C-alpha cells in the first residue's frame, strides 16, 4: 500500500451521487511524465511513493464539484512542498519576480476590504489561510491592520515570522474571532473542505467576511480527454484546475455556495476585482458606455478563477 486516502463522497456537499470521469495510474504514461516534468522528483520516488496510486477524477452530480478520489497522505504532501517543489526555487523564480501589478491588485483588494468593514484599520483582525510568503498579510499590516496567518511549509513560516506576521497553528484558530478571513487559492488543496470551512466559520462574528478564491476551468472534461496526448505544463490542455497531488477539488460557483450553506454561511455581494479593474481609466470609460452591471457580468465570465465572499 502507498497510503493514498480514498474519498468516496463529495467533500463539499457530502453527496454520494458521484461518478468517475477519468482514471490513470501515476506510474504509467502520461502521469509519470507529468510528475517528472513538473516536479524535482525521480523515477525511484515514483516507484516508492506511487506504487498502486491512481489519478482518478470524480464528478458530483448534486453540486457540480470535480474532485480527486485518491489523495496523498501527509508524508507525500511534506515531500511535495519541501522537496519536489523546491521552496528556494519558487522564491527565486516566482516570488522575487512578481510584477508590480500583483502588489497593486493585493492593495486594491485590501483597501476595498477595509472600507467594507467600516472599521478603523487598527480595529480590524485579519487571518490569511495558507498565506504562502505572507504578501497579503504584509500589505494589510502596512495599512495598520492586525494580521495573522497559517501556513504548512516550514520555509515559508520562517520567512513570514522574520517579517513580523503572527503565525497560528490550525488548532488555535478557534480561539480567535476575525473580521476578515482570506482563503486565496487554498480550498482547492484541502482534503476535507466542508469540515475546514465549518471550523473557520466558528471564528467569524455576525459581520465578519470570509473570502474564497479558487481556480476555474469550463473545459476540464475536454482537457482530460486530450491529456493522453499532451499532458504537459506548456500545453493549452494543462489541467491546473485539478492538478495531480495539489488541486484535490475543482469548484464551480454552485459548489462553493452549497458548501457555504452547509457551514452556515451565505454569499454576499463583494466585487473586489471588478471594482479594482473598473477604477482604471480605460475600463472606466468602457464601463460608463455599457453599464457597470454589464461589465461585471462580462468580467465574471472572463475570469480565470471563482471568487466568492461569505458572511454568517
Ligand atoms: Zn457535491
Give your account of this protein's structure.
- By secondary structure, the protein is an alpha/beta fold.
- The chain folds into 2 domains: 5-85 and 219-246, no CATH class; 99-216 and 251-311, 3-Layer(aba) Sandwich (Rossmann fold), CATH 3.40.50.
- It is 39% helix and 20% strand.
- It contains 13 helices and 13 strands.
- The protein has helices at 31-38, 43-49, 74-84, 87-93, 100-117, 135-142, 154-162, 193-201, 220-226, 253-262, 272-278, 281-290, 292-302, and strands spanning 5-6, 18-25, 54-60, 66-68, 70-71, 125-128, 146-149, 166-167, 178-184, 204-215, 249-250, 266-268, 305-311.
- The protein has a 7-stranded mixed sheet. Strands 2-3-4-11 form a 4-stranded antiparallel sheet, with helices on one face.
- The structure holds zinc ion (ZN).
- Zinc ion is lined by residues 10, 12-13, 15, 60, 62-63, 65, 255.
Number of domains: 2
Structural class label: alpha/beta
Strand/helix succession: EEHHEEEHHHEHEHEEHEHEHEHHHE
Termini separation: 42 Å
The hetero compounds bound to this protein are: zinc ion
Query: What's the mean pLDDT score?
Result: 88
- Return the CATH class of the largest domain: Alpha Beta
The backbone outline, from C-alpha atoms, is globular
Condensed summary:
The chain is an alpha/beta fold and 312 residues long. It is built from 13 helices and 13 strands.
Give short descriptive properties of this protein.
single chain; alpha/beta; Rossmann fold; 2 domains; 13 helices
